[in-house]
Amino acid sequence: MLNIKLNIKLNDPAAAAIVVGKNGTPEKPEGVPIFAWKGESVEEYWEYTAKALDFGDGKGPNCIVDDGGDATLLIHQGYLFEEKEIAPDPSKGKNREEKAIFTVLLEIYEKDPKYWHKIVDEVYGCSEETTTGVHRLEQMEKKKTLLFPAIDVNNSVTKSKFDNTYGCRHSLPDGIMRATDVMIGGKTVVIAGYGDVGKGCAEAMRGQGARVVVTEIDPICALQAAMDGFEVRKMNSLVKTADIFVTCTGCKKVVTIDHMRQMKDGAIVGNIGHFDHEIDMDGLYQDPDVVRENIKPQYDRFVFKDGHGVHVLAEGRLLNLGCATGHPSFVMSFSFSNQVLAQLMLVEQKGKLEKKVYNLPKHLDEKVARLHLGHLGIELEALTEEQSKYLEIPIEGPFKSENYRY
Amino acid sequence: MLNIKLNIKLNDPAAAAIVVGKNGTPEKPEGVPIFAWKGESVEEYWEYTAKALDFGDGKGPNCIVDDGGDATLLIHQGYLFEEKEIAPDPSKGKNREEKAIFTVLLEIYEKDPKYWHKIVDEVYGCSEETTTGVHRLEQMEKKKTLLFPAIDVNNSVTKSKFDNTYGCRHSLPDGIMRATDVMIGGKTVVIAGYGDVGKGCAEAMRGQGARVVVTEIDPICALQAAMDGFEVRKMNSLVKTADIFVTCTGCKKVVTIDHMRQMKDGAIVGNIGHFDHEIDMDGLYQDPDVVRENIKPQYDRFVFKDGHGVHVLAEGRLLNLGCATGHPSFVMSFSFSNQVLAQLMLVEQKGKLEKKVYNLPKHLDEKVARLHLGHLGIELEALTEEQSKYLEIPIEGPFKSENYRY
Amino acid sequence: MLNIKLNIKLNDPAAAAIVVGKNGTPEKPEGVPIFAWKGESVEEYWEYTAKALDFGDGKGPNCIVDDGGDATLLIHQGYLFEEKEIAPDPSKGKNREEKAIFTVLLEIYEKDPKYWHKIVDEVYGCSEETTTGVHRLEQMEKKKTLLFPAIDVNNSVTKSKFDNTYGCRHSLPDGIMRATDVMIGGKTVVIAGYGDVGKGCAEAMRGQGARVVVTEIDPICALQAAMDGFEVRKMNSLVKTADIFVTCTGCKKVVTIDHMRQMKDGAIVGNIGHFDHEIDMDGLYQDPDVVRENIKPQYDRFVFKDGHGVHVLAEGRLLNLGCATGHPSFVMSFSFSNQVLAQLMLVEQKGKLEKKVYNLPKHLDEKVARLHLGHLGIELEALTEEQSKYLEIPIEGPFKSENYRY
Amino acid sequence: MLNIKLNIKLNDPAAAAIVVGKNGTPEKPEGVPIFAWKGESVEEYWEYTAKALDFGDGKGPNCIVDDGGDATLLIHQGYLFEEKEIAPDPSKGKNREEKAIFTVLLEIYEKDPKYWHKIVDEVYGCSEETTTGVHRLEQMEKKKTLLFPAIDVNNSVTKSKFDNTYGCRHSLPDGIMRATDVMIGGKTVVIAGYGDVGKGCAEAMRGQGARVVVTEIDPICALQAAMDGFEVRKMNSLVKTADIFVTCTGCKKVVTIDHMRQMKDGAIVGNIGHFDHEIDMDGLYQDPDVVRENIKPQYDRFVFKDGHGVHVLAEGRLLNLGCATGHPSFVMSFSFSNQVLAQLMLVEQKGKLEKKVYNLPKHLDEKVARLHLGHLGIELEALTEEQSKYLEIPIEGPFKSENYRY
Question: What residues make up the domain containing A231?
């Protein structure tokens, strides 16, 4: 049996529905316990994470579905203290977050200094879907501190290309429209970064009749943008004339305060890339000559001394989450299906996997795709025996080599 | 001096801002009086319309900006009763609306049985921007009952092509996304009608990665759709497999209850055409076997006996108004600019126009366009003298013949 | 019975096939006589035109299918000399063409000074498909010199929008590719003029991954280009950086020699608009410092003193005709169907039409469309009785008002 | 010094120009020797390949630029016979081609039974750009028979995505238009296979206003097609209604004779994938009931018993090569730049590489891109020091991980 607990950030009504379950009542829930509430503090967050991993009687999960890698992190840190036989010291935490982690771990350590060892013994492995989470796992693999097998579902085609490209193609115009009610057609839109996210964003803006100009640092992606019919310029060449700026780089200070200083009055600036420092929000907040006027929730006008203002979406955080409702469920279903198949693989391969980071095998990536064909009314052709032999590809796949780029 | 009053349906905060004006206060407004409130009854609507036309001392407007033709209608009906010297009889109204009109007119008639004659004496003319309003004006022109010159701004290119095509290209995905949060990409979307509205809708859906199929009754528009790369089928061929249905026909019962009976569970049905009978809402409401479940405001699930449900946007009314915020201000600015230029023309040509329906002259249509070039950073080329002579077209335009289709 | 003769410019093999006909032989042709050969002189052209109008025994055609208006012109000029009882004097012709016309007419006049009167007596009317031809007809109508009814098929939607827009969308890339073998993707292409032709051209270039920039003199068309996502600039802002220049204006000197002087080495310049003076070819030919190098038939490099060269397609004539094979037959079928329906109308309405220029009625325009639906597999929806009544539109059409723009 | 010889298939005028060189004459060439002529036999082909590898005095090339792997094959086979000290026996060749190879090798073996050993001693390595050639190299690497390092430039992004996707986007419509003059707009086009080639083809057909339907065996690519707005069906569901069929699969019998038997009269069938068996040409040739009618070079009509005919492009070979002029030079420049950089790497890394198949390093792939930016007027943004540190990516690149998919 697989035990399931969730440590997720949800709107409270959604969370409530999950807890109660289909036939349960608030008094007698028959759903899945949830350890989170909207608006919780950092300290609460880590306390709840520990609780979600506590299945009672010193038991924990055997399989971990991680999104960001925090559950995995907590286990590894707890295990390390036990290994060194040192009680965690919250005062030594480098920042508020680390202090919170140490506090939680200290409490556990004082009760049972071998608690995490017992948990780890039972873990088959984890699967992880974010770039950041996978990066941490790879670092641990390198340092040989990884305690159980891990599956990287972030690298699946049905994750990276679907979530990033098709998800943002939907949620970028959604976010801009809900926040600003400004016509996109006819406007000049700068898409900073022509990776998976940028490609989806550029397509969406063109689909609304905008003129799209791309900025890039990578000459290959820059050429792709040009071959797709987009002008490719430096940000400095664009700041004075463009109407809407969208960052999708994963980098920082892509739109600086100096850029914004030169923009047209009413220019719209938003981020759909990664963290909230693609736009230099700190620069805006700290400049005493810049006045912030809130237009409505998640939509602010920052007015410069000369009177012109730029309109920033979602305080520089992900505009599709802040100003709309994020990606549609259909595209999230791809990511979650990857997680489910990864989890099944952990169970099936129990004991056979090393303490390494694995990619989800291509046939499972293809299976995720296969599971979604019906919803879109897709008819799939099948190889004949003759064709299969000719191509040296099995009829049921996988159909492409590992380094195929799609 | 032009006297200005507004009889418009606005969100109340917007209305309040207009009334108060830039330097005024609620106590001492310096803005424009408004005679309307959100949620008013039909009776109030006509009462306020009459008030908006009453400038005091038996005076009324000299120029009328109409949107739907109701102000013009009220004046003409009032004038007719006076002409016949018959007091309006509310009990003879054919429906609630006509009863309301007669009630308002009776009250005025009893006070001053030549009230509307005096008003009409001062009117230079009206301008009208809706198909319905223009239709009424043309009927009156035919019957020679039109009391003053009228300008049809609905037929301007910068109205019909901009409002309809570009406006809906923006507000269709906006409405669907806000209401449903459903992914449009990969879905099969039926666009019923490939007129100006349908063209914008089809482009928007394709721009989101949907597969678009068009239905048409007009063979020319059907061919245009095919030549633009869209499949063109009958509705009956599509009802079982498509995911989203959008009506843009101006016709009635384009999506019937029988169609909806055959649709997939979860099919989305919305109207962005004209009135709320493009989708057979009455059929849904009246069928005792169909159960309505409200998902959220402006978004309902109608469940059929076999358990499948269709999701209807905005109760079959215009989904961009019901589920989003209508067209963006930029595209409305074209329509309103047409109105303003028509009004100036009424003043300039005072006394020279007949009691007819005029199109806005092409040079004014072009002027509306010209006024919006700067906002989009457009550089316009100018004819040289030599070119102007060669083409027999004045350097400043107009550039096209009256029947040019753009 | 309708007598048919052709006065057309055809490749000789095609002409031969028409003359011989399906069951004939060169010795015993059973096809249609042709009065033209490829490469004929201006003098021969007019001689043959007269012959094509001569059915023997003083008889001529009853219905004229004209493309450019030359048959109609010859009849009208001949008629005028007879009316004035003056023999045409070739030496008074203003140019080579007029001298040729007068020569032909003189020969006829000397044989029979009432020849054209007899011809005109039998003519039901003509139909004309070019802008130039229609312009001439309208001038004659104005001056009341038009001798028979004329139908303008140039103004049909299925002519103007199909031939111009969809035809050029096909034949522009066809011409560029065949002539130059240059990659269009990634290039900056200037489309001069965003009328029906320019719209098709811009779409085709974007469809090949080019970045399209538009030039316009008409603010409405300029805005349409911007709302379709294209940058709109003056030619002067573009000459130094763009790769390909395509004129589609109907105007002259749209690309001047000064423009070409500033272009990049290898810039491609072509015309798909109207006559061969949209590009200033005379300027190129007459400048002693410009050296012409023929690359291959219909493709020349003009080298300027500084060593840079521009590559001109088809000597500035229509590049789709010069460098490819013109429009595909499917789109020409629309134009020719309009001609056929116009001819049938002339016969059916014989005696009922005035000496005026008529548009082809909308129901015939729609019929042309209807005849082409099957070829593209289009299913057309039909109005129900209820819908027909509601819209006040007959079930069989016509479906739109005369000024509808499509 | 690098010795250069070419063994290439070229149009003879192009070959002549290369041989003569810039300042040479046919009598005193100063160009590069060429060992090939258009229309040579298989026997001549291998004889010339051997000659191209013979630099005189028992010397051969130090670096090999291969396209298909034949030069590399000849060297390896010759070496193997010498190693086994067995004279090649042409009569033992399995087919005409192998017999030709053995004949060439025998002649050399008889002159010098250590000829290829001396050649191999001097070879730094080879670079190879085709899928087939790379496949062979990988087989040799596996069996440890590879005699020198090899660089796979087929896997570069700037090769695989540019040549395949953008090249075919250009040359598919080029081939169809030149061969058929048929209008693509409004037609239903089946694109069999949505890999790199299929993606470019689908975009090109849509860009011409066609309705594109995709067939796929790979569920991931099938979903990509759907998310890009294309219908995805089985070939059997399409054969009766589609107008144009294009194979881009790399597989065989994708369009079978049974498919063609069911097609509409005039259906167009072409291949832009790999070899000439994607369309079952053998089936057509061998069926006694199918009559072949040549329309023009590289364009045939195959008529079935019931009278309907299908129009096959380029006898089922690559239609862009057969019916047009292949890819434009700009896109080929990417492939050739990869070859050049690979060759420079072979020289620079001389002695340091193992007898393995290497990918071209990502920084060289990016360099190929960088070299082409100027031609398209692309401005590239550069990372700041701060950004470089944050991303842990060097300012000069490479910018992406090895498994990034672009």
Answer: 165-322
